Amino acid sequence: MLELAQRIQKNRKMRVALVLCAGAAAAFGALYLYFHDPHSHPLPCLIYLVTGFYCPGCGAGRACYSILHFRFVDAFCYNPLMTILLPLIGVYIAVRAMDWMITGGNHVDKKISVRALVWLLIGIFIYGILRNIPVFPFTLLAPGGMWQILS
Predict the structure, then answer these.
(1) CA pair distance 67, 151, nearest whole angstrom
(2) Could you tell me the CA-to-CA distances from 33 to 72, 75, 79 in Å, in that order?
(3) Would you call 123 helix, strand, or coil by DSSP?
(4) 55: Cβ–Cβ under 8 A, 6 or more apart, which residues?
(5) Tens place of pLDDT for every residue, the chain, 151 residues?
(6) DSSP state, 134?
(7) CA separation (Å) from 147 to 24, 70, 76?
(8) Helix extents (H) in the chain
(9) Considering the entire predicted model, what is its pTM?
(10) 89 CB-contact burial (10 Å; exposed 0-12 / middle 13-18 / buried 19+)
């Protein structure tokens, strides 16, 4: 297995092929979500099923479906944090993949502040707590909660 990883590391064509395959898999996933409405076929959240609490990702399937259909307000109502972070995550993945594809290395992660990542994780954790407080204005953070003020 280590030999295969080293061979991929040294072979630019293999890296390009892997990145293109990963991009194709992501495109097929988006295409599947585009045609399969999560309102009628919801994606179950294990944390919600077990605990009854919303995790920071609850509503993300419906939000991604809405984004694919250019309904950004709907997406924001289902999961505000994910709707804000998704473009940043997409840029990170694209830049990181390009860097690895071209150089075979990881020069992107060295430029990202560990302190910023820690604060981001703390923010996501706090968001996950706040969206479960059953009092206004925290109910706005629950999946679909923003419809309280937008409808």
Answers:
(1) 19
(2) 16, 14, 16
(3) helix
(4) 45, 47, 48, 128
(5) 667 777 777 778 888 988 999 999 999 999 999 998 888 888 788 999 999 999 998 988 899 999 999 999 999 999 999 999 999 999 999 999 999 888 888 888 888 889 999 999 999 999 999 999 999 999 999 888 888 887 6
(6) -
(7) 34, 17, 10
(8) 2-10, 12-35, 46-51, 60-68, 72-78, 80-103, 114-130, 147-150
(9) 0.82
(10) exposed
Joined together, the tokens standing for residue 127 give 């968001």
The C-alpha atoms of residue 108 and residue 94 are separated, in whole angstroms, by: 11
Phi, psi dihedral angles at 142 (to 5 degrees): -70, 155
Contact 143, 54 (CB under 8 A): yes
